Amino acid sequence: RLQPGAPCSGRVGKYERPAQSDINPVKELALRHDLTAVTTKEIAMRRRQLFAVLGLGFFARHVFAAGGAAAVPTITPLRLSDAEWQKRLTPFQYRVLRKEGTEAAHTSPLNHEKRSGIYHCAGCALPLFGSDSKYDSGTGWPSFFAALPGAVLTKTDYALIFPRTEYHCARCAGHQGHVFGDGPKPSGKRYCNNGVALNFVAVAA
Known about the structure:
By secondary structure, the chain is α+β, with helices and mostly antiparallel strands. It has helices at 25-53, 57-63, 82-88, 91-97; strands at residues 11-12, 15-16, 117-121, 127-130, 134-135, 143-144, 152-160, 162-169, 175-180, 190-193, 198-202.
């Protein structure tokens, strides 16, 4: 039995007293929260810095717009009748966008477009590509190594017997082109686009 004033250093009867600690659990939890927030911000900042070094400023602002997560917009599908599409588009645009035609190589003025801006779907004006992802593939068609987040969808087609990956506008399903795995870094992809399926809108530098 403990005498009055004796230190509580171990056992009381057959039960052990819990070890004493100077750590305040409330302060410790707050500290862990602050460290987690700092770490998350550092990761997002380093990602942005990396993309800036690679010359992908526009793409980085879109991909890491939401605190380091890909910012994928909600897109409402646009569905029109065939007659409405024919009224809305030129005959050439209709053949490519709605019938998956292909324009002749080296014929699109967009091959030589060097300004900063956005490439929109010619069918519904959805932004598809940023100029930062455009490059000269030497194929004769406007080419990009990345689409804007959520802007295009893909499917497999067998128009040339062997399978290819077709991609189209995520809003109106208008055919844009085919994507191949021989593009430059960082994606390694080549989005080979029909120029007639795009409208370019320049932005101030």
